[in-house]
């Protein structure tokens, strides 16, 4: 039991990294199945189109799926007016887009390391064929499209230069290196721009998890009470209020809109969530409500914790 508890705690602490790892693993497995079973290079003039489609189209589909499955995106666009959408998207869409790129980048990187898609696409491009067939005559240009289907011809054409598969693998490793460098730099910048210290940030994350648990519990209780009141009103006509009975309150549309906005950090107030800010500003009626600056990417977890179970 202790071992299971440790494993559970480890998964909870590193659920974001584990989630990305699972997505990358499933994407790599899918790419392997496609390249081994589905992909068959035509070895003719259609090579460029066929190879490019298998290399890029699945990645684009994965990117779209990553966007529509990100609850932060839907929180951003749900109910926003046309005038507000553009300014919102420019300022807060970077983190969701970065997360949606995990699967497509994995697909492209694994596909390039495998080499099949690139080899097929490159063998149909005039520029690549001219480079491969330098000083080899027109016969080489005519046969270049059959390189993916003829290993003997591939060795003859590329014996003095890098093969198409080798080129693909080099591009794949450079892509992986570039992504790692960009990820490290962006993470360092986001931590350097954090408006709070490391320990306060750690406390903040713990607070957000606890707030979400309590909110879910209270929301369940509140909705059950509201449903009971509505059913009772349906079956029992309204009458004079009995002694000691209190009026039941449910948030207004305006209140729901206020807590559904994206979080803005105010270094003077140090509210840990919109609910926190809403409660301390007299239900958002004071001038100080929402008078904050755009939160840096390091504080993106404030919205993410609230949305982690909402999906699309």
Task: Describe what you observe in this structure.
The protein is 68% helix and 1% strand. The longest helix is centred in the last third of the chain and has 38 residues, at 198-235. The mean pLDDT is 78. The chain has a two-stranded antiparallel sheet. The protein is mostly helical and 312 residues long. The relative contact order is 0.09. The protein is elongated and about 90 Å long. α7 runs antiparallel to α12 and α13 runs parallel beside α16 (301-307).
Features:
16 helices
Structural class: mainly alpha
In helices, the fraction of residues equals: 55-70%
What overall form do the CA principal axes indicate?
elongated
Strand order of the largest sheet: 1-2
Strand-and-helix sequence, N→C?
A: HHHHHHHHHHHHHHEHEH
Model regions low in confidence, pLDDT < 50 over at least 5 residues: none
Q: Look at the structure and give the mean pLDDT.
A: 78
| CA distance, first residue to last residue | 35 Å
Total E-strand runs: 2
Rg computed from alpha carbons, rounded to a whole number of angstroms:
28 Å
Estimated share of beta-strand residues: under 5%
User: Major sheet, described briefly?
Assistant: 2 strands, antiparallel
Number of helix segments? 16
Short description:
This protein is mainly α. The chain has helices spanning 2-13, 15-38, 47-68, 71-77, 82-92, 94-100, 102-114, 116-122, 126-132, 137-143, 151-157, 164-192, 198-235, 253-259, 274-280, 301-307; strands at residues 264-265, 293-294. A two-stranded antiparallel ribbon has the order 1-2.
